[in-house]
Structures are given as structure tokens and as C-alpha cells.
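Here's a chain:
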Amino acid sequence: RLKAHAPNALMMAAVIIAAAVFLGVLNESGMLESVALSLLAVIPDAVGQYLHLIVGALGVPLDILTSTDAYYFSVLPLVEATAGQFGVDTASTAYALVIGNIIGTFVSPFAPAMWLALGLAEANIGQHIKYSFLIMWGFSIVLLLAAVLMGIVAI
């Protein structure tokens, strides 16, 4: 039984190690800071303090364009570094991006569980996204607003 599950477990371990190496290279080489500083030159000061909320609100569409791994391993650190320059707390940025994106998994073409559910429901991805996208995105924004109102995500 171990032999049947080993490839999946090893693949997950490889993804986590590769992501850690990727983030380590970005961070230690100064590339992450350089990209964040480049973004600072483009982002107006009035918008910068709300960057975590803006990207959090766009979490579901971003999950359709990128995989969940790409969102958390590349978008999140970049937004955290950039928003941090505007005085936004790291935890608040992480909460905003996680809350804004967590629902996106259910409409992302990169999520294997969604493909399994579509197969069991005998539906296709086009029908699912057409029907579910706006509902999921709206619910994601409601969750983000609730987190702001409860003080979990700072404004």
C-alpha cells in the first residue's frame, strides 16, 4: 500500500522543497526586494496602503490565471514585501491574500479536486466556471470584508 501512495507524497515534498529554494534564492539574492522596490515606483502612495486588500479581492481571478502554488509562493511574498514598504503588517497581508484566494480553489483549473468533482457531477469546466465564478468571487469578497470588520485584516 505504501508503494501506491509514495509518488504523490514524494511529489508534494519536492514541490515544498522547490518552493523553499525558490523563495530563498529570491530573498537572499535581493531579487524580491528589487521587484518590490520597482513596484513602489509605480504604485501611488494612496493605493499602496491598500495593496493587500486589492490583491486579496482579486484572489479568485488570480487563482484562475495562476495555480494555487504560484499564488502563495510568488504573489504573496511579492505583495508582502511591497505592502510592507507602505507600513502594512505582514500578518494582515497574509490574511488578506489567503482569505481572498481560498475560495478560488473551487474554480481553478489547476486544482485536481475540482476535476474529480466535475467528473463525478458529469459537468465540464466551462459550465462550472460560467455558473460558479461570480458567486465564488462575491463570497470571497464578503469573507474579506468580514475579516476587515472583525479586525483580522487591517486597513
